[in-house]
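Figure-free illustration: sequence to structure, shown twice.
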Amino acid sequence: MHELSVAISIIELAEEEASRRGARVDAIHLRLGPLAGVVKEALLSSYEIARENTALAGSRLIIEEMPIVVYCPRCQAERTLESMQEFRCPECRTPASEVLQGKELEVFALELQE
């Protein structure tokens, strides 16, 4: 389960920033796309385990799930996919290979308390 190593990396990143600012982390906000290769529930569970006995004990991991957005060459528009099993424009059914969103695994905000 590589979600544990991802959780540990997130905690280390947040600890470093909190230490730099002389603050305590209350929450970590993460964007997660379905193509990131990380299972949300497994990451949340791993975070609960990994945060124990760290400066982040008691903090929360808040995950914002991102949809898969592709560029349709036929429609010349961005389209949100309905399913990750079918990479086709939901409007015209043209295969779409240019992924614009959905691979995210990024910490985008920390809630800090000084």
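We now fold a second protein in the same way, so the two outputs can be compared directly.
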Amino acid sequence: MAHFNYQEVLPKLMTPEVMNALSGIHEYRGKQDVYATLMPSTMDKLCEIAKIQSTKASNEIENIRTTDERLHQLMAQKTEPRNRDEREILGYRYVLDVIHDRYRHITVSSGVLLQLHRDFYRYLNVSHAGQWKDSDNVIAQLSDSGEKIIRFIPTSAVATPHAINDLCAAYNAAIEEGLYDPLLIAALFSFDFMSIHPFLDGNGRMSRLLALLALYKNNYDIGKYISFEQEIEKTKVSYYESLLASSEGWKEGRNDYLPFVTYFLGVISACYRMLSERVGVTAKAQTNEDRIKAYFVGLIGQATKREIVQAHPQMSARTVERILQRLQAEGIVEKVGAARSTAYRATGKAAFENSSDLTAE
């Protein structure tokens, strides 16, 4: 069984790449504090948007889905779930709300992990809710031919309770010692939890919720405003590759945590950059139209109206719609697709008109 000797692992993670990533994240975190003070209403709107995106993305990674319309109704508690997927989505939302609202009072312990898992399934009648797995499981994937390929064999069912106790003790000891950045400890904790795979179901989603909990408790609450889970969903190929790379030799205690830690820090950095872009444009631009123009200049590809509204929480949907109509009339933005697949993208004129401003900044 694996042992969690973080005092031995953490010094090995102090590579130039990791140190540079941590330095950049600390700089972004300072800016976030300023945003929260100067633009509280914008940050509140971003928080509500991030909850929806996080719930959608973390469940979609596990192929649990509903329509966007149903998702928004469920998140607003304006409808009842229609099927198992929607009940699991509601459970995720519930635990996410608990973490958002009460993280300061939530301890990292085996009892709390069981309670969160029980709450995760509060809308489903399943016997394994809030229970450690009672049979061994494997992490596998299907090949193109449909063949099941085993990628990793987690901790056995009989050893799981002891492993979780050891993991929580290692995490708490490393945090209390205070020698290393809590971001690194959160990454190790998230990875080792996934490697134990302590539940019959819900391990991936629980690992992402617990990562948020560890981040919030250590004053890295970027996931409140920019969806940590959505960034993972966008890069899930790299996510799984990093898990696989760091899992080799895990049971024997000779695995290399660096691939997953590097990926984890990259996700955090991307979230902070996105927050800086969204709120920074809001702070610099003089008008709502300037903000939308700047958004399209930096946009790669196209975006739906919902995505544009979500990126500009200080504006109403109607305001965004009026601006899009004007920018289309001016030839700065063009519409692509139709009906539900309608999206918008910048024309060459958008980049030309904004190039002088971008150079000045």
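Summary for the second example: The chain has two domains: 6-278, 286-360.
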